[in-house]
Amino acid sequence: MQERVLSNPKIEVLFECETVGLTGDKVVQGADLVKRRGQSDEEQLHIEIDGFFLAIGHKPNSDVFKPWIETDEIGYIKTIPGTPRTNIAGVFAAGDVADPHYRQAITAAGSGCQAALEAERYLSEKGL
Predict the structure, then answer these.
(1) How far apart are the C-alpha atoms of 59 and 54, rounded to whole Å?
(2) Helices (H), the chain
(3) Residue 48, SS3?
(4) Of the segments 12-16, 56-60, 76-80, which one has the largest average pLDDT value?
(5) Rounded to an integer, what distance in angstroms lies between the CA atom of residue 114 and that of residue 81?
C-alpha cells in the first residue's frame, strides 16, 4: 500500500508533520500542521485539502495480555471467527486490538458493542 500511496500523483505525503487543526465551513477544507515540532527548524504550515484520514497506528497494544490471551505473530488478539470471544471464557476482545483488517474507528465501535453484548450474555448465563 505504501508504494501505491507514494506513486499516486493525487496524494502528497508530508513526513514529520503533526496535524494541529482542521478548517472549513461544514466540510473540511484545510489543515494546520507543525513540521518537526520542537526542533530548531520547526515550521507552521496550512494546506488546502478536501479529505482527511487519521491513522492512529498499526501495532496492537496487546502486550500486557500476551501471557494469558492468544495473539497472532503481530500481536492482534485472536478471537473465535465472527465473535469477540477469546481463548478464555468470559474474556472478549474488540476494536483495533483484535482487527488486523479494517482498523477503523467505526468498526472498532461496532465490535465494542458486540463485545459488550457478549459479556452481558456471558454474565447472565452465569447468573450474575
Answers:
(1) 15
(2) 2-7, 105-125
(3) strand
(4) 76-80
(5) 13
Q: Tell me the per-residue pLDDT of 4-51, one tens digit each, with 9 for 90 and over.
A: 989 999 888 889 999 999 999 999 999 999 999 999 999 999 999 988
Q: Which domains does the chain have, with CATH numbers?
A: 2-48 (no CATH), 63-125 (3.50.50.60)
For the record, the C-alpha cell of 47 comes out as 494546506
pLDDT in tens, 91-117: 999 998 999 888 788 999 999 999 999
DSSP 4-45: HHHH-TT----TTEEEEEEE-SSS--EEEEEESTTSTT-EEE
Which among 8, 47, 15 is positioned nearest to 28, based on CA atoms? 47
Q: Is the pTM of this model over 0.85?
A: no
